[in-house]
Write a structure and sequence with these properties.
By secondary structure, the chain is of the alpha/beta class. Helix content is 32%, strand content 20%. The protein is built from 9 helices and 11 strands. Strand 1 and strand 2 form a beta hairpin.
């Protein structure tokens, strides 16, 4: 149980699960880490909680977590149907209930591909200062922290690298329940985003959302290695290279011209 004496943000990991991005335990997704990286960059205090931890809290514990909040962020990105063994992504019903219970007036941000889908289906919960991000949640949060207003934003390559590195040693990693201890390591698997988008950006596969992200944008091997080193220093022992629709197309020539470079 956490006693909240000082004002801070609450980051709720509702989990993401995309065709090329794992984030349901034992995985920790990269988008929630980027969000924490933004808060780290702005030197803002925050608490990281998973949706499964939230479900186990008593009403009193939930009330304590909602005291003295400066802001709230939640990633709801599970779009792949199926059953999970170790965790269950946040549902639309849970999200609506959570929004109702948030303190009035604080900024609240929901992001992730599930939120995009819910929004298209008409999910528009009424609440002041609530924003549903349909682009990059981390960049949208960063913009709000800079200028105090909400608008959809995309991250730059420099921001991508910075928030990935800061997120690697953030509370999304160090306070994740699956990280374990020095004596007994847990099953936490750190999902790395190698690139975003898809080489089949013109047509894509009907079941996949990756083509909607456009032409692939690569991260350099050096940038990825540095992130993994930081995560290892934070206690991570298991890593998966994700965020790729096709491993063989990483940094391939002819991506913009050929569907199968």
């Amino acid at each position: 149980m956490v006693e909240r004496d000082a004002a801070s943000w609450l980051v709720l990991d509702g989990y993401e699960d995309e065709p090329a991005a794992f984030g349901v335990p034992p995985y920790v997704g990269f988008h929630i880490r980027y969000v924490c990286g933004v808060l780290e960059q702005h030197n803002i205090d925050y608490t990281y909680v998973t949706i499964d931890q939230w479900r186990l809290f008593s009403e009193k514990e939930r009330a304590l977590h909602l005291q003295n909040l400066e802001g709230f962020v939640c990633i709801a990105g599970a779009v792949v149907p199926g059953r999970y063994i170790r965790g269950t992504p946040i549902s639309r019903k849970e999200s609506t209930e959570l929004i109702r219970n948030l303190p009035q007036g604080i900024p609240a941000l929901f992001g992730g591909w599930a939120v995009r889908g819910w929004k298209q289906q008409g999910w528009l919960p009424l609440r002041s200062n609530l924003f549903l991000a349909v682009q990059d949640t981390d960049a949208t949060l960063n913009g709000f922290l800079r200028i105090g207003t909400w608008k959809h934003e995309r991250r730059t390559a420099e921001q991508w690298s910075s928030w990935a590195h800061l997120g690697a040693k953030s509370k999304a990693v160090t306070q994740h329940p699956d990280l374990g201890t020095d004596e007994k390591k847990g099953p936490l698997t750190y999902e790395v985003e190698v690139y975003q988008g898809c080489v089949r950006f013109k047509r894509g596969c009907k079941f996949c959302i990756e083509p909607k992200k456009g032409i692939p944008i690569w991260r350099t091997p050096e940038d990825i290695v540095q992130e993994v080193k930081l995560a290892h220093d934070a206690g991570v022992r298991h890593v998966r290279l994700g965020g790729m629709t096709d491993t063989y197309t990483y940094m391939a020539e002819g991506v913009k011209d050929l569907e199968y470079p």
